[in-house]
Amino acid sequence: MSYKIGEEIELKSFVEAFNNCKETVYAMPKNKKENPYVELAEDFERLNKKEDLDKVKPDNREFYCYLLRHCKDYGSYTFLEKDENGDEIVANIDVFEPYENGKKEKINQKWHVMISLLALLDAAKNDKELNKMDMFKSYSKKDFSKFSIIEEDDGKKRLQLQKGNGGNNLEMMEQIMIILNKYYREENYA
């Protein structure tokens, strides 16, 4: 049984399905200019290599530094947001590697979903230092503990957060739908 459009998903269930997902979409959006997740990936690469640091956007630098402070190991992200029982939610992802095999040709869409979207929302909502900064203030009001996928009039799918919009990037949505259709039911309804 596959995911039904509009069905509510809890963050913990999504992350568990994410951790079980073996397929990864690697893609670069057609419009790379002024694309926030592409800019974040490029800035992570600059910070990883300690090159062209003057080109790094201050908000991206702050998010990177938050991840350095927060991550127990760089192979996983532990959400500040807890599940309804107060338990940790941990995503298995290489936090600082946004690209396929370290090459800047294609972005790992699992990284896009988990780090540049969900971890960023988590930090904005729950980290007291980050949510004072302008970029993060706008994200801090978004509730991502539960979300759903909706279909727009043009047929495109969109991630709908409990409070706020999560985006409709084609490549990201492809990865999310693989996770939901192949692993979400397996984890929750097997």
Describe it for me?
By secondary structure, the chain is an alpha+beta fold. The chain has one domain. Helices cover 43% and strands 16% of the residues. It has 6 helices and 8 strands; from the N terminus they run E-H-E-H-H-E-E-E-H-H-E-E-E-H. The strands form 3 sheets. Strands 1-6-7-8 form a 4-stranded antiparallel β-sheet. Strands 2-5 form a two-stranded antiparallel sheet. A hairpin with a 5-residue loop joins strand 6 and strand 7. The longest helix has 20 residues. The chain is globular, with a radius of gyration of 16 Å. It starts with 8 loop residues before the first strand and ends with a helix.
What's the gist of this structure?
With 190 residues, the protein is α+β, with helices and mostly antiparallel strands.
Widest sheet: strand ordering: 1-6-7-8
Low-confidence blocks of residues: none
Measured between the Cα atoms of the first and last residue, the distance is: 10 Å
In DSSP terms, counting alpha (H) and pi (I) runs of 4 or more, how many helices? 6
Helix content: 40-55%
Radius of gyration: 16 Å
> What letter string, H or E per element, gives the SSE order?
EHEHHEEEHHEEEH
Shape, principal axes of CA atoms? globular
| Domain module tally | 1
Q: What class, by secondary structure content? A: alpha+beta
Q: Look at the structure and give the mean pLDDT.
A: 86
Q: How much of the sequence is in beta strands?
A: 15-25%
